[in-house]
Amino acid sequence: MAPRPFGLTSRRFPRKLLFIAFLILVPIGIIVISNHSYKISYFFRPLWDNPPPPFKRLPHFYAENVSMEHLCKLHGWSIRSEPRRVFDGIIFSNELDILEIRCRELNPYITKFVILESNTTFTGIPKPLIFSSNQDRFAFTEGKIVHGLFPGRIASLGSPGNPFVLESEQRKAMNGLLHYAGISDDDLLIMSDTDEIPSPHTVKLLQWCDGIPPILHLELRNYLYSFEFPVDYSSWRATIHIYNPGTLYRHSRQTDLILSDAGWHCSFCFRHLHEFVFKMTAYSHADRVRRREFLNYSRIQKLICSGDDLFDLLPEEYTFKELIKKMGSIPHSGSAVHLPAYLIENADKFRFLLPGGCLRE
């Protein structure tokens, strides 16, 4: 038989290779995409998502020993004859240490701490009433705390429900608790999560000045795990309102005005490793726990000390420039300046929140 032309053989061989490569690479590609879909989505966010309209930042003037009258004037406001009453509305989950720092820091300026606690998480998991069993720790407030219980819903097996719905229900319930606490027109109302702490001089400024905006977002310095890891000034959800009958408790954008450098937001700032695990499975973004090993104590401890993300995610940014700039570990900071005074006064008790204290119990 005559030999086959070499050209025909060389054409068939690459087709076999392509077919084999297709059989190998397609399943690998599917596995890679499924395992890293969050990262891929976050990386390409600048292509599919638009940033919200920018805030109008109000300059914030403050220095020690400057009179309140002068500070009001610098902001374009006038001094009041007496300060407004202030109500601090807090949805509480399990941030006991941060709540103590918050209450100690703001106690001189607060009329009532209005704390709502549920017996379930936003994801429908039963939880102990942590604040209820630790109220003695807050005896220093001398009767300022109004504590309410919210009967949550336990999620059925295989159907956890929408955590944002449960979260919204708790925030609506806060409106009734505020009325019970005695809030009235022209009082100042702080709407923020436990770990979003306005600075004392911010609260004092807004309670003593006339002419302030009726709704004002607070720009908070954002920290992760402790005050050793400052992230940026991207925290904006905390608000202060001059209360009126139409005021509703929310945790979303409500105005274009934001007061610059108005406090601290310390997210995942827990003393114990089990508290990290609890929040990771309990809060509204619990779907970020994509693998069981994410909840491993040794893994969590390593990430806390390195300043890396608990959920192995990229930064949530709207431009590639900002995304690339924030990729990787959060740089350590050796500064413990301009932090809550009670934290510094009790540094031994709260060593885990300060530079060099990354090891958790």
From TrEMBL:
GO terms for cellular component: membrane. Pfam families: Glyco_transf_17. Keywords: Membrane, Transmembrane, Transmembrane helix. One of its GO terms (molecular function) is beta-1,4-mannosylglycoprotein 4-beta-N-acetylglucosaminyltransferase activity. GO terms for biological process: N-acetylglucosamine metabolic process. The chain crosses the membrane at residues 17-38. InterPro entries: Glyco_trans_17. This is Beta-1,4-mannosyl-glycoprotein 4-beta-N-acetylglucosaminyltransferase. It comes from Acer yangbiense. The lineage of its organism: Eukaryota, Viridiplantae, Streptophyta, Embryophyta, Tracheophyta.
